[in-house]
Write a structure and sequence with these properties.
This protein is 32% helix and 28% strand. The protein has 7 helices and 9 strands, in the order E-H-H-H-E-E-E-E-E-E-E-E-H-H-H-H. The chain starts with 9 loop residues before the first strand and ends with a helix. Mean pLDDT is 84; it is low at 1-28.
């Protein structure tokens, strides 16, 4: 990663325990816009829809259109077996999102914490050591049945020990979802994109989207 100059330092009052990766063709972008316009035309009744429909349906439709997956019955079956149980947003020194869901009978929890300024390092005061500690600008944990399968940390350029630290348990993801399922979906990246459209926080700064461990999922999908 290119070395960039570091802007003003951001400070956080959080304790460490509290602070819990193809651009599209033009015609594909039009497909995404069409889906978004269609949803907007639905009006206030959308607010009364189930959580999955309100938060995921637009993203799923836009992703299917963008990736031309309308013919892939497995994609639709996987979405059918998704249940979104809760979605919460906490605003403090960072923006924190927690999503609880079940998919094909497996229980999942997604946590994303995003500093408001993606260009500056963020520090917090450790009450035990009484010293300032650098925290990631972006933190992601994705668990399935209490097993951490996807973990990602991103620091602004030059601030952290590594600009990006991504831990992806490919073998366990393959075991949990099935290697045949992943192949039928179109590969691991396609599965990761699907998981991202379920969970990723569209309210976080757009600069963070390319650092999310969800197969290069477009920010346009998150906004759909």
């Amino acid at each position: 990663m290119d070395s960039l100059s570091v802007g003003p330092v951001q400070y956080s009052s959080l304790e460490a325990d509290d602070f819990d990766d193809a651009s599209a063709a033009e015609d594909a972008d039009d497909d995404v816009d069409a889906v978004a316009d269609s949803l907007a035309a639905m009006g206030p009744d959308v607010a009364e829809a189930p959580l999955k429909e309100r938060l995921c349906q637009g993203r799923f439709n836009a992703w299917v259109a963008l990736m031309k997956l309308g013919h892939n019955s497995l994609v639709h079956e996987l979405y059918k077996r998704l249940e979104l149980q809760s979605h919460s947003v906490t605003l403090s020194s960072v923006r924190s999102v927690c999503v609880q869901f079940s998919i094909a009978g497996m229980q999942g929890v997604y946590k994303q914490s995003s500093c408001f300024d993606p260009t500056s390092p963020t520090w917090h005061m450790n009450s035990k050591t009484q010293s300032m500690e650098l925290i990631p600008n972006l933190l992601v944990d994705w668990t399935l049945d209490d097993e951490l399968l996807i973990s990602s940390r991103h620091w602004t350029a030059g601030a952290g020990p590594e600009a990006n630290d991504v831990q992806l348990n490919e073998s366990r993801l393959s075991e949990r979802f099935g290697s045949d399922t992943i192949t039928s979906l179109g590969g691991l990246n396609r599965l990761l994109q699907f998981l991202g459209l379920i969970c990723a926080d569209a309210g976080a700064p757009e600069a963070y989207t390319r650092h999310l461990p969800f197969g290069g999922l477009s920010h346009r999908i998150l906004l759909a």
